[in-house]
Amino acid sequence: MDNLLKSEVFKLKKDRSFKTLVLILIAIAVLIPTIMFMFGTETLTVDDLFTSIIGKNHYVLKLLPCLLAGYFISSEYSLGTMKSIASSGNNRIRIYISKLLVFTFGAIILSVILPIAMTGIGAVYAQFNGMPDLKYFMQTMIFSILYAAAFASIMMVFATLFTDSGKAIGVLFAIFLLFDPIMFLLASKSTVIEYIYNHSIFHLVYKIIMVNAMDNIEIFKLTIIPVLVYLTFGILGIFVFLKKEIK
After folding, report:
1. What does the alpha-carbon distance between residue 109 and residue 29 come to, in Å, rounded to a whole number?
2. Where does the sequence pass through the membrane (predicted)?
């Protein structure tokens, strides 16, 4: 298991798509605060900047790892890498878990770059005035990590089903872009679907920004649901991988 994890971490470090996405996010994290503080007409506090980032970071959580899933996972089937790993005597369950853990780690890295880097750079420009509340900052980061992991677990299943990176990315983008509008439409016609959607990670991810105004029950729900999703889709992915014919 240790060797598998080390191998996956090495591949993630060398993965061009991962490095490209990280560099793009870092560039955005540098450019946006620079432009806002140098050319903005209104005084912007670091707290305002952080809140605006958290309000839009769900796009990063749901979409950018789709690209990573296609290139880091699905491409290994088409290139024959996965066949070599599976035929080397390694247990399939361990192979999948190792891949899932490292892919989750990659998704988490992508999810925290903007809020951490942009807040840090904004703090330098603002000379650390108007900083966000530390407790709120930590809460939002923890929940961003939880939901990035939950979405990664779902992506991993579909990336395993589709052995072509292009198809995997296309399907994942379709799912993560269309799920909200479709469920919102269906929820308006059915209270059952409305309840399901309101308790799904696709809906709850939008509430991360409001964590400082939630009671204990709401925070518990915001915490336990992504954990259950991660475990459920992790187990589902293992079954899919065990049944999959690797060519």
Report:
1. 14
2. 21-39, 59-79, 100-128, 140-162, 169-187, 219-242
Digitized pLDDT (tens) for each residue of the chain, 247 residues in all? 678 899 899 999 999 999 999 999 999 999 998 888 887 666 778 898 899 999 999 999 999 999 999 999 988 887 777 878 877 777 889 999 999 999 999 999 999 999 999 999 999 988 888 889 999 999 999 999 999 999 999 999 999 998 788 899 999 999 999 999 999 999 989 999 999 999 999 999 999 999 999 999 999 999 999 999 999 999 999 999 998 877 7
Domain count of the chain?
A: 1
Domain span including residue 52 = 2-243
* Global pTM value: 0.94
**Residue 159, H or E segment:** helix 134-161
Alpha-carbon distance 237 to 241, whole Å?
6
CA distance 223 to 130: 28
